Amino acid sequence: MNSTQIKEVKVCNSLRRNELEEDFNSRRKSPVTCIPRLPLLKTAAESYTGRMYKELEAEFKEQFSFSCNLLQTERSILTYMVTHMYSDYGAIVTFNKADVPITCACRKYESIGILCKHAFKVFNVNNVFNLPPKYILHRWTKYTKRGFYIEKQGSEMESLQTHAARISRKVTSVALKCSLSKELLDDLEKAIDKLDSEGDNSLSKMQEQSNEVPLVSTDYTTDTLKGTISFRVPEVVKGAKNKRGSISFGKDKGKKKKKKSDKKKALVLTLQCYTLQLMPMGNLGPWLLR
Question: Helices 3-28 and 50-62, interaxial angle, to 10°?
Answer without folding.
Answer: 70
